Structures are given as C-alpha cells and as structure tokens.
Amino acid sequence: MPVLQVGEHQISDYDTYWIRRAIENASNRANQPHFSFVDDVYDGIVYYLEHKCSLRLLAIEALYVRIRHTLKRIGCEAIANALEVECPPITISLERAALKAGNGYELVFYQILQTEMIELKKLGASEVFFSEIHESVMILKKADQWYDDCDQLESDILLWLKNAGTCPQRQGFRIRCNIEKINV
User: Fold this and answer.
1) Is the distance from CB of 142 to CB of 104 less than 8 angstroms?
2) DSSP character for 153?
3) CB-based contact 131:173 (threshold 8 Å)
4) 11 in Cβ contact with 86 (< 8 Å)
5) CA-based, 20 to 30 A from 154: which of 62, 96, 123, 174?
C-alpha cells in the first residue's frame, strides 16, 4: 500500500478501517444509514490501494477524490457529496516538538502540540499517538538522566493533553489521544 500524506505527516503502516468508517459516516450524513454497498466500496478501495495504486506516496485528499468518484459511478452522488476526509491514526513525535521548542521552553512545546493537533483535526484526523515521551521530557528538562522533576513534567504533559480534551491513554511508550473534541 502507498504511504499516505496527511499534511506534513506521512503514514506508512496503517489499517484501513477508517476508510469504511468514512463511507458509513457519509451515508449517515446523506440520510442513507442502511447503504448496502459500504462493504463493496470499501473492498474496492482497499483492493486499489493494495494492487492498483502505482504511487508510493498518496495524498489523503487524492484518495478521497477516488472514493467520491467510485461512489458517483455507482449512482451514490448524495453519499459522495457527504463524504468528509477521515484519516488513519497519526503518530506525532513529542521529541521533535521538544527540539523545535528548545530546552526549557515548555510553554512553546505545548503551543506546538496545540497547533499540530488543530491542523491534524482540520485534515480529518481523529486519533493521534504521541511517541518519544521520555526523550521529550529529557530535552525540555535539559537532563542527562531521569529524575523526579522529569516524572512531574511527564505527568504535566498528560494533564495538559487531558485538559485539551483528548482523553489521553498511556499505552506503553505511547500516548493515545482522541482529538475530535479539541477546539479548532
């Protein structure tokens, strides 16, 4: 399958359930909640991605042009017109945000995260994974080793994500967040 381009993010390892969800959501918005060809359209798009798409990098918008075209070809113009871009989960590096913010600039770090989440939401993302938590804390704290203040900053980051409305869930070395409820 091609790598998907979502804004400045590239997603290479993704499941395709979000495509089916996007088609179902469009059928609901078009007041056709019992659209019986959801699986057929979904299977066709997945087949295209796995076997027919010659591109190595596919912009998410271009994929949705193809989905709309497919829906229109089978006579489902109302659903095609109601189709909104949804994306697979995106992983954001907290380390990259910390490096961009600079040592000790926690406020800038949070502003970078806020801006990135808003941009991703506008592009159709609803689920984000934040990686490299440990590394970002070490950068922001200018630390060579982990100490008590690092634990506090890690807790502060989780609290900030919670207060931003993302319902963060710690999953091993990553934080899973839902960005549907953040304000754009």
Assistant:
1) yes
2) H
3) yes
4) no
5) 123
CA 134 to chain centre: 21
The residue to which tokens 């960005």 are assigned: 179
With tokens 């070490």, the residue in question is 138
pTM: 0.80
Give the tokens for residue 82: 């109601």
Cα dihedral 170, 174, 180, 184 sign = positive
pLDDT tens sequence across 32-75: 988 889 999 999 999 999 999 999 999 999 999 999 999 999 99
Short-list 52, 24, 54, CA closest to 36: 24
Indicate the average pLDDT of the chain: 89
CA distance 182 to 170: 19
Q: Which of 94, 155, 166 is nearest to 130 (CA)?
A: 94
